[in-house]
Amino acid sequence: MNRYGWYYLDKSERRALFCLLLVIFLIFCVRYWLLSKREQNDSGAGTVSVEWQSFERQMRSDSVKQSHQKEGVRQATLFPFDPNCADSATFVRLGLRPWQARNALRYIAVR
Question: How distant, in Å, are the alpha carbons of 50, 53, 57 from that of 63?
Fold first, then answer.
């Protein structure tokens, strides 16, 4: 053990610690600066913020509607399934994509 004890940092460790503390300090400064800018913008634009809020609300409702419309509702049907004798149509009927069905059939053929 050196004469300074376990808490002694050599030059490279001090430099690394200084850089780490500097980065943390800069992150907090930028965050504070951005929040203060945001508050200044919000206080100065009353009508713009109302319009912006209505725009955001409209975009959220549209995106929720579109995401549900994109995914079609599939009706579940029961049918006998034997994975050893299944063809690609059976795998697609189970809900797999065509490329997944093709890979499954390749795997069965190799086995």
Answer: 20, 15, 10
DSSP 15: H
Neighbours of 23 (CB within 10 A): 10
Contacts 24+ apart (CB under 8 A), 60-67: none
Rounded Cα–Cα distance for residues 103 and 45 (Å): 57
Q: Looking at residues 71-85, what average pLDDT do you find?
A: 74
**This model's pTM is above 0.90:** no
- The string of DSSP codes covering 18-59 is HHHHHHHHHHHHHHHHHHHHHHHHHHH-HHHHHHHHHHHHHH
Residue with tokens 């959220």: 60
pLDDT the model gives residue 22: 96
Query: Distance of alpha carbon 48 from its chain centroid, rounded?
Result: 30
d(CA 43, CA 46): 7
